[in-house]
Design brief:
- With 470 residues, this protein is an alpha/beta fold.
- 41% of the residues lie in helices and 18% in strands.
- It has a 5-stranded parallel β-sheet with strand order 4-3-5-6-7, with helices on both faces.
- The longest helix has 16 residues.
- It starts with a helix and ends with a helix.
Amino acid sequence: MGLSISKELAKLLGGEILLESKINEGSSFSLIIPLVLEEEPQKNFNKVRSQESVLHILENPNQFLDFPAAKDDRTQIENGDKTVLIIEDDLKFASILIKQANEKGFKCLSASTGEDGLVLARKYKPNAIILDFGLPGTNGHNVLNELKADPSVRHIPVHIISAEEHSLQPIKEGAVSYLRKPVNKEQLNHAFGRIENFIDRKMKNLLIIEDDPNARIAIRKLIGNGDVKCLEAGSGQEALSVCKESYIDCIVLDIGLPDMSGFDLIYELEKIEDQQTPPIIIYTGRELTWEENNELQKYAESIIIKGVKSEERLLDETALFLHRTIKDLPESKQGIIHKLYDKESIFQLKKILLVDDDMRNVFALSKILKDRGMNVVKAENGKRALDVLEDMGDVDIVLMDIMMPEMDGYEAMRKIRANIKYKNLPVIALTAKAMKDDKQKCIDAGANDYIAKPVDVERLLSLMRVWLGA
């Protein structure tokens, strides 16, 4: 949690925290912040570079709506037109993008702030979005997160064109491509060609790489619908052949293959000429080591451990990376995804028991949970948590730290499960440890799920959505 807070503080100061890690050697963190907070005036506004600016935005949430933008085609859009929303505050560059898009047969919408971009995306439902990260008001990273958290627009492919250093993070969050400014006409032509190809291809190809045929059938049944064609491979070599012969939009990969490891397969996929490696979702039943998890994070868009509730997450992740329109899915599958993303309703008035002896973590997490409409009850150790449960009895979910004085999380979870009335009470373990068998120890002690510290807030909320919706 401390690292997550530090990361956000660094962003507010216009900087970043970098991590360099080597297996068996250790990790080093670097904080980079500018000596002078940079300001870039344009049309009488400054880009957000300081904590004071962020507070000003929170106090004046409408100041970045209806901003001057490049002239677009919104009054000429008709049913059946291919449309692109361009969210770019450099009006000269936005005009260049609009001209090039028009030449390719697209009608354009233009926004110079993230706030206006989100309004236009939800109103017009464009076929694609081109997004700059360095925007006034809410930045492009927040815009991308908002788009991908909204079931009504999350299927729209987002192409990043930004001056920021290239990063895999936007791709992990659902963007389909990343171009770093400055860009030339050939690169823009290629980008619009990719958008056109994506729009024209109504059927998306999902490759399931899994040596268990029954597991492949289960995944195909979970994902299957008229807009997705499921291709299958039972080995690494078979998967490579399929990728060379067919255009693949997304891969679901079990890393335990008979002829090569999932790691080796990913390396081989990277070597295929004239092809961009598609998003890879790791879906495995094997507990990953810390080193394996770190290595996979360099390539895989998501890592899902097979288990209770993992099917819901797999459906959600594949829908994200295949850019499936949620309203076109069968009602049962729509319901699964809406439960994960209806943030306002699923958290409202839920009672959360937060068990942690570190008051900094308790304070930070409590604020995040309360801001989403939850009631938070606190306990500083396992013994106190048992007393709170006995006194209140109507707790909806427990967030249980492991390393605590007097009674640790393992013992507390075992005692909770020993009481029949808490048989179905969801418990998520939070631990700063990172040993290979930690997750299994937590599950054996009675946890339903597990997340390591420093806590990734969005991942924790995602897990809570799953278990509160059970």
